[in-house]
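Repro:
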Amino acid sequence: VQLVESGGGLVQPGGSLTLSCAASGFDFTTYTMSWDRQLPGKERELVAGISGAINSIDYADFARSRFAISRDIDKNTVYLQMNSLKPEDTAVYYCFAYGTWGQGTQVTVSS
């Protein structure tokens, strides 16, 4: 099982980023996949999740109106579109599925 995140970087407040998580080694369509984040000095927290079989989606309250999770089955990839980014969104963002974490991608929101 392998999860490889990409798309992080430095963005100004109010800007947007799209994170990608390329998955391999398991049935992508069956398992729930999630994006989580870890702010400096804080516990890792759920950002958004998308279930495998029924494609239901759930968001943390802080993400509900600004972030969007989606997946491309043909590419075995899950995306996290993040809009209206705030400095408090600065964190390492991780992809999680099948009991496995990706390596994380740093998102820094700063002017």
